Every structure is written in structure tokens, then in C-alpha cells.
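hey can u check if this looks right to u? its 182 residues, i copy pasted from the old doc so theres a chance i mangled smth
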Amino acid sequence: MDTSRQNHGEFLAVSEESICGLDIGGANIKFATTSGQTYDCHFPMWRMADQLADQLRRGLQELEPSGAFDYLAVTMTGELADCFDNRRSGVQHILQHVEQAALGSRVFVYAVGGKWLSIEQAIGDPWSVAASNWHAMTCWAAHLLSRKQGSLNSLSDKACETASSAEHSPALAEPQAGLVID
């Protein structure tokens, strides 16, 4: 598996509690801690979904040898992988594996709209957490812009999104003709 690890401590050191953010995608998993460490690995969800908990544990141990953090903060798009029958089953599968890998960490799942949900709440409302990473990223960008206006463009193999921010409130721009990606 392709992996990379970096340290951005001066930028992200915001808490005395250990927090690891996870972005669980359909092809890659990204990890970032409040101490500034990052780690990412290739993980083809469509082929390896049953191995997700093991890969999450390995990634957490890359950043903290015990693999234990006070909190895990989760976003995802991996529920869209074609190995799942629908988004609901994908969200449930991913969060069950996160729970297995959590090693006692309290887990919160980011919901579009800016709320943090428990695993149980997220499984009960899968549409609110499905494909939530764009919103989390936009909220963070809005926070960094600090009352300035700007935009964030995200292009992947599945979508092209443009979000604008004004006074810390992200909004998805109107769809642009010709930007549909099959």
C-alpha cells in the first residue's frame, strides 16, 4: 500500500487532548492529528472493505504507537464504493469498522450541516454523514478565511464541487452546466 506521513504541528496544535481525524474514502484513507501529524494510505474499498478495521488500526498506530486517541473525528465518502448495496449499508459497514478500530477512543462522525454525531446517531441517519468530507473541508476553510469571502474548489474522479464561504458559513454553489463526471 502506498503511504505517506508528514508533520504539520505548528499549524494544527490546538488541543491538549489527542484527536485524530479520519477521512475514509473509496480509494484512500487520510489521518490527521491535532499534534500535526498526517498519514495517508491507498485503500481500495471496493476490494478490501472487510479489512477496513485492520487498516484503520495500522494507520492510527503510524501516528500513535498505542493506536489510542482521546477522540476520533470521522468523515467519509467510502460508502459510495460499489461493493455496498446502498449508502446506508456503506455507512453502517464503515462505522462498524471504525468502532472496532477505535481502541476506546470516543468517536464522532461529521454530518453535513456541521453537527458531530455518535456512531449510533450516524448509523440511524446515514444520509447526513454520507459524503460529508466536502462540507467539513469547506467549514474549515471558512474558519481560516475569518470573515473574508473566498471559494474552495474540489475536483475528484467522482465530482466537481465549488463552495463559497462568507462569515464562516459554507454554501455549495449552483451546479455548473457541463461539469457532470461519470
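The chain has seven helices and ten strands.
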